[in-house]
Amino acid sequence: MREADRPLVVNRIVQAGLELLEEDGIHAITQTQVAKRCGIRQSHLTYYFPKATDLLLAVFSASHAKALPLDSAVHDPIGVLRAVMFDPTRMRFFLKIVAELPDDPDIRSTVADHAHTWAHTLGPFFGRTSSDPDLLIFVDMVRGRAIRHILRTEGQAPSKAELLALAARLSLRPVNRG
Amino acid sequence: MREADRPLVVNRIVQAGLELLEEDGIHAITQTQVAKRCGIRQSHLTYYFPKATDLLLAVFSASHAKALPLDSAVHDPIGVLRAVMFDPTRMRFFLKIVAELPDDPDIRSTVADHAHTWAHTLGPFFGRTSSDPDLLIFVDMVRGRAIRHILRTEGQAPSKAELLALAARLSLRPVNRG
DNA sequence: ATTGCATTTGGTACTTTACCAAGTTCTGTT
DNA sequence: AACAGAACTTGGTAAAGTACCAAATGCAAT
Known about the structure:
Chain A has 10 helices and no strands. The first copy, chain A, has 178 residues and is mainly alpha-helical.
């Protein structure tokens, strides 16, 4: 179902989920609370999102899309990567979804595709093709680093310069784009 | 409370949690099911583990300890790392805990310490001090890679050789120990 | 014996999810 | 317009789970 074809109520549902996510965190994204916020019945929510995970996934997708405005991602991919990966709420959300992911391969590849989006965004920046495995390793590295960040919130998130230094460890260096 | 000082019930509780984890996965670790398995009341469980996360954390700790029998970890740290990180059940468990971690700094540092355990295990193997930041980066990298593994279960987990190759990207090379 | 503490029970209020059966609204067709 | 069928919406419910609380029990030191 393309976004444009979706019933309005689905958009309202996802929007409510986004708001709850930003205001109260992951735990607020429940059928009960989302339904209350957009004025429909909880049972109606399971009509569009039969499993609780389906709703989570939809909100996650929307959140991801919102965080990746294409122009800024192209202009400053490291900045966007940093903003998305080291936002604890967003990262926790991602981890929760990965942790609870049902075995359905469709659902899994939906999330996996989001991961590959990074390779497409970073490829041109580092002068690599988006299938370059080093890009995936770099993303792995940053994700792992972000988890460490969640565990030790006292410290600052790595700066863009530090992230570039990490990339350099894998011989990934920004190319001059003019 | 040291493990030795713990009431026997607590050991039984954690043990039941471990069994459920291995048999039915993360979702089985609930007060209700654990209580049923070790023949106590659910309300009694909240006496020892006031929050549901506390129980999760205890089972996670036990599971981690069980997976790191010291001798084999020293003898073959990469093998142990591989076994622990690329076991989907275990990794999901870890991610779930990180995702749901309450803000209590004590609890967070408990989990963070488990991460640092890896640095201590890997340090001698790579001829580095356990505070060497490269070790942490390597662990980050492997963790990130493991997440990717969860998302694409078709593929095999990286072999030990591949993990060593990853380490080499960070100039981490095993030292000869004789 | 009694006091104080840890343990254990039983009960309850609340939240969340996944159903279902029954309505209602919308749509295209005749 | 009238109809049939699909899409949508409601209300209700059963099951599982969490976090409380008040009361009972056991146990140890005074």
